[in-house]
Amino acid sequence: MKVSVRWALAIAVSGLVGAMVGQTADVPMAAGEPSPSRTEHRIASSSPVTDVIASVISLRVPLPSTAKAHPAACDRLSYLRYRSTDGPARSVDADRVLVAQPGIFEGAGAFESVARNTVSAAAARGRHIEFWALDRRSNCLEDHTGTQAALAAKKLDIATDYYFHGSPVNGRRFGGYADGSATAWLGDVGLEQTLRDEYDVLRREFPDQAARKRKVLCGGHSLGGFITGYFANWDFDGNRATTGDAGFNQCSGYFALDTVIKAGGPNPIRGVDTPDIPAALAAPLAAASGELTDFYPVLRLPAVINPETTNLLAIAGLAARLNPDGVNDLVSRLPQNPNIDATLRALLSKDPLMAATGSPSIRDLYATNDAVVGALLDDNSQPLGFLQASVGFIDHGPVQDKSFPVPNGVVAAAPALGSVFGPDRKAAPSVYGDPRVVYTWDDYDEVTPNAYTDPSKEVTSIAQLVRSLSEPPLDFTEWYFPMAINTDLVQGTAPAIAAHYLYRDGVKRNPVLTLQGDGGLGLGASDNPTDVPVTLHGYNHIDVLTAAQRQNDGRPEQVSTRLAAFSGR
After folding, report:
1. pTM over the 0.85 mark
2. What is the pLDDT averaged over residues 422-442?
3. Distance separating alpha carbons of residues 236 and 123, to the nearest angstrom
């Protein structure tokens, strides 16, 4: 039976919609290897959470010999390691280690705030834990030379000249965004390889399986929850008779950050499981999916979601990190091209006419760098729910209801749309092209009640968000997300997946903590008797990662507080 690529594309789209989001210590080079098998480098940080040490770990874990041609850098796995300043130097000596899978279009840097806050909260309880933020193997194709050099020199022009104008940094020039044959190998980097990569990180860093089972907590954000669900149910050698390699025996519990720990694709209907693809269709559908990922290995769109625009978000964060009150520092440097123009219009237009005509132009708005980042990510501006955080509100200029892509009233009348567009009322600047009106940004703890928000709904500091966007060497936003992960999530009966997806109760064998924002995506419930679900007031999809250590009600941040408690159970 032949199944068309159209069916495979439908699978990919369904997965995308549901998922939407100093010092060095080097291990000596192993014999015969071209690079050190493990490296660890301390990361300098401006974080106000100063009792946490962060470092980037790189492990040499080559792809299978059957993998298509790929850069040598892609034979390594990386993660960000966060630990207490007065905790043990070795991970195996920590009380617990939380290991987190990122969401769609998300890199390890997205966990910067929640990782620091959680480690700090546990230390206050007298426990020394670690938080590991995993980076997908595909991120080896990214080039952060410009951003990191600009951050070190405190000069935005270094980054914009590098990415936009071909200027060199330390003799290196930006080679453009990878496509075609340069990304073909990602067509085979799907669910199986992603799970294997996490397993290999755990085995390398915790060689003793009993120690892994006792100390490791596995979890993720958004799409990362469903990947973790498969991990719990996976058998890495494909043999039920040997369970030491089973996913549920690598973790002592699971944590979900605005997601659920559940194998399969996202399903917002509680108590209803998505039916398995019948065995007669599974193999031909998997073959069709393979055709799709061979042709379309990276999930990218002509605008809004593609490598150039996800990198642009990091540069916007950099501009605000270096000069939060600077006016139009990034906007004045943006190149004129269809992708960037269409992205600005799609995300920031105040009404359908502006989106269709480009008039007034977003480039004519006078706004501080903080206000630009706020407009791009705040829940009262950003139209897409999977990109929203509660970071304050726009100030020093008149605003109006934002009616693009949908009017505020439509979402209010159809609450189900809240998972797509977010439940919060949207606002847009009213004045463009007038240098006397410069829009600024009130941080989460500076907001006064208005028609759109109030302090109880603001939880993330814009200052810390822009730091997370620009400082970590493994970035917040992901340039190259493998399409195969999306297609695989809903194909549990495909032969290659079914050979390892041997358990349906792996999640239920360990306790679960589920933390979901009341303005989050609503990705469903785990329906797991071991689950402890918590709803967080004022939190949107990104807030579960970025919320400030101290909240407006005077309480400590709730995600990190609850994770710290969960790690000590």
Report:
1. yes
2. 97
3. 34
